[in-house]
Amino acid sequence: MTQPWTPVDPLGEALYFLRMSGTFYSCCEFTAPWGLVLPAMTGTLMFHVVTSGQCWLEVEGADPRPPRPGDLTLVPHGEGHRLTSDQGVGGVRLEDVTREDANERFEVLRQGGGGSLTPLVCGTVRFDHPAAQHLVSLLPRMRRHSAGHSNELSAFLRARFGRWNLPNAPKALRPVSPTRCV
User: Fold this and answer.
1) How far apart are the C-alpha atoms of 60 and 69, rounded to whole Å?
2) Distance (Å, rounded) from C-alpha 144 to C-alpha 67?
3) Which strand ranges, in their side-by-side order, compose the sheet holding 106-112?
4) pTM of the model
5) 106: which strand partners?
């Protein structure tokens, strides 16, 4: 039996139902040593995907974690946090980082000391539906979803972020390689 309607993008449909708003993405190109200090953004869920290289994520009150390439790391309560090339590296405040604004929802961030490259895809979203807000409130301060343990997540991350293929990204940004965008 054929279903009369099958969603093309089940994740997108779920996010639409949960009233996701305030979406913002950034393509980050950081070279070691580097550090980024992100401010608290009340009422948001922040996420980070390391596409290659290495980094550390530090949220006050939680153990520092090293997200691996392909991992999706969530900071679901909008807490300020740090991303660094290695533990103990100082950080630059987000507002002081060199940026290229592509549009009102996407920018490219660049910083570091010229060493090994760690590209990331980062974003901030807000959920307006009370059920979604409740679900997010139940999440721990930091959560890492390992792409290596989930074929479905790994495929999603490769399809969405592996070539900087971001929704609403301007046409001027084009993939140069899996780790660079211009």
Assistant:
1) 23
2) 7
3) 98-103, 106-112, 20-31, 117-127, 45-50, 72-75, 143-145
4) 0.73
5) 25, 103
| Site of tokens 């139902």 | 17
In 3D space, the residue among 23, 15, 49 whose CA is nearest the CA of residue 169 turns out to be: 23
Q: Give dist(CA 20, CA 141) in Å, integer.
A: 20
Distances (CA, A) of 2 to 5, 6, 11: 9, 9, 21
The CA distance from 16 to 38, in Å, is 26
> Hey, what are 8's tokens?
């093309």
Q: Which option is the CATH number for 16-163: 2.130.10.10, 2.20.70.10, 2.60.120.10, 1.20.58.100?
A: 2.60.120.10
Break the chain into its structural domains and give their ranges: 16-163
Write the pLDDT tens digit of every residue in 4-19.
Answer: 655 456 656 665 666 7
Select from 53, 35, 39, 37 the least CA-distant residue to 89. Answer: 35
Report d(CA 29, CA 118) in Å as an integer: 6
Model confidence pLDDT, tens digit, residues 97-141: 998 887 777 899 999 999 999 999 999 988 888 888 888 888 888
**Amino acid, res. 59:** V
d(CA 97, CA 24): 16
Q: Is residue 146 within 8 Å of 154, Cβ to Cβ?
A: no
